[in-house]
Design a protein that fits this description.
By secondary structure, this protein is α/β, with parallel strands linked by helices. The chain contains 3 helices and 5 strands, in the order ββββαβαα. Strand 2 and strand 3 form a beta hairpin. The protein is globular, with a radius of gyration of 16 Å.
Amino acid sequence: MSSNFEPKKVKLTSRAYECAFIGYNIIRKAYRFYDLNAKVIIKSNDVDFYENLEEVRKQELLKSIDLMVYTFEEYSLSLKEAISSLDAELWQETINDKMDFLESNET
C-alpha cells in the first residue's frame, strides 16, 4: 500500500491546487509556489499558469491540472513590508534561495 493512498479519492479526482507563484527552484528545473490553503511551499515542474481567471472559466477547461497558479503582480510588496508581514519566514527563505542561486552562478 502506498503511503499517500487516500481511499475516498478515485483516479479522476481533481488534483489542482490554488497557489501563488513565488519563484524558481534552484536545485532542479522546477517552479516554486505557495499553497494558499495548506500554507506550504510546493516545488513542481508540471504546472499550468492561469493569469486571467475569468478567461479560464469561460473556456471551461475540463482537463486534469496539477497546479493552478495566480500571479500577484498587482500586490507587489516592498522589502520592508515583506519582512514585517506574517509570511516573513517564507519571504526570507525565498530571498536566501535567490541569493544562493546568484552567488553559485557568480552573477
